[in-house]
Design a protein that fits this description.
By secondary structure, the protein is α/β, with parallel strands linked by helices. It is 32% helix and 23% strand. Strands 9-10-5-11-4-1-3-2-16-17-18-15-12-14-13 form a 15-stranded mixed β-sheet, with helices on both faces. Helix 1 (18-30) runs parallel beside helix 7, helix 2 (64-77) packs parallel to helix 3 and helix 8 crosses helix 12. The longest helix has 20 residues, at 298-317. 52% of the residues are buried.
Length: 397
């Protein structure tokens, strides 16, 4: 399926947090579709302002029953979409099984294809078991996530009713879809995901379930014939890097940023006032705002996130910063909503797990949002350079 220039194919993405919404929508943006993230489910008919609407349900922080109900309602609202994609975390965090079943029921789709592999980040599915860089996800760092620990790597345990399809058996998909099955697909490389998408004659018969790997495969199949490149925003004068994720990868990235650039920052506490006062006194061209390094209880994490939000709001209202780089989906949601932001118009995906765009609402700042566990140690340094400088001639924006 190649979209004509004048075609406005409805593509809906249902995500359990903000970074998943961005990761799901960004490949379609790269394939020539207008795309935006919505922070709340529309009250009525789906909006038509963008070809791709990615809804952040915020369901990962809800209890399982509430998460399933929210997912079911939103799936019903977007049931008429030509492509309906339900994101799941590539490490299987969150209410994966309950939300997938709720989305299936709400959507009325004939069948479900579940393919959570994200090969570009070392997250693969081998005979129905999810791995991160060779380690079953329930034995990885994600098993020690203080808020969403992963307890199961085996998709057959999460979906005992599922039919399992190996990468070399993609040709079986049309028959399984006709039977109305829930299908779990293993994949270790992007080509495996491309083959399973190519094997399905009608994308609108399926509820697609996966991570950015499957989203990218669907976007490649749904690419528009031509797509003009969007212009990047003007370079930021003084960005603020907001780090709420306690993932070790993000903490290493923050340390590398401070070692390698002219950066100053503070650690926020329960009371935001000292952090606001300290940041106002700093003179570096890049500021950082972090939570303490140690992992927190869910209650403490929420308090610290609200404190970060108050700091960001104060600096934004004072116009002390003119761009934001935020790590962690829950951090981004908590920080942005008090600013009167209703969503993000997407520009591109400069790196896996990172989306770039402009805030929608009272503040239209440029923003980069990074998933907590993604990237090498130099990623924040690169993102800081990206938001502060114009691209070199010939360089992709």
């Amino acid at each position: 399926m190649v979209f004509r220039n004048d075609a406005r194919q409805a593509i809906a993405i249902l995500a359990d947090d903000l970074t998943s919404a961005g990761d799901g929508a960004a490949p379609f943006r790269g394939a020539g579709h207008d795309a935006r993230i919505l922070f709340t489910t529309p009250a009525g008919a789906p909006p038509h302002a963008a070809c791709v609407n990615a809804v952040d349900l915020g369901s990962r922080v809800l209890d399982e029953e509430a998460a399933a109900l929210s997912t079911w309602r939103t799936a019903r609202l977007f049931a008429g979409s030509e492509v309906l994609f339900k994101t799941v975390d590539s490490t299987l965090r969150g209410h994966v099984a309950a939300e997938v079943r709720a989305a299936w029921a709400g959507s009325g789709r004939r069948a479900v294809v579940v393919a959570p592999a994200f090969p570009a980040e070392g997250r693969v599915t081998v005979r129905g078991v999810q791995y991160v860089r060779g380690i079953p996800v329930h034995e990885s760092d994600y098993a020690r996530d203080p808020v969403h620990p992963v307890r199961c790597s085996d998709l057959a345990t999460l979906f005992p009713e599922a039919v399992s399809v190996q990468p070399d058996r993609a040709a079986e998909l049309p028959e399984l879809i006709a039977n109305g099955d829930l299908i779990v697909c293993s994949a270790t490389v992007d080509g495996d995901l491309d083959r399973l998408v190519a094997a399905v004659p009608r994308l609108d018969e399926v509820l697609w379930v996966g991570s950015p790997g499957l989203a990218a495969a669907l976007a490649r199949r749904c690419a528009r014939a031509t797509a003009g490149a969007a212009s990047p925003p003007a370079p930021a004068r003084r960005p603020l890097i907001v780090v709420g994720s306690t993932n070790p990868a993000t903490r290493r990235q923050l340390a590398e940023l401070h070692r390698s650039a002219d950066v100053q920052g503070v650690t926020v506490g329960v009371d935001p006032a000292p952090a606001v006062a300290r940041l106002r006194d700093l003179t570096a061209p890049v500021l950082t705002l972090r939570t303490p390094d140690e992992r927190h209880t869910p209650q403490t994490a929420r308090v610290l996130a609200r404190s970060q939000a108050a700091v960001v709001q104060a600096l934004t209202e004072d116009r002390m910063v003119d761009a934001l780089v935020i790590t962690g989906g829950e951090t981004a949601t908590t920080v942005l909503q008090p600013l009167g932001v209703t969503g993000v118009d997407l520009l591109d995906e400069p790196e896996p797990g990172v989306v770039r765009g402009s805030l929608i609402g009272r503040h239209t700042l440029p923003v980069l949002i990074k998933a907590g566990g993604f990237g090498d140690d130099a990623m924040l340094l690169r993102l800081c350079h990206l938001i502060r400088h114009r691209p070199d001639p010939g360089e992709n924006a």
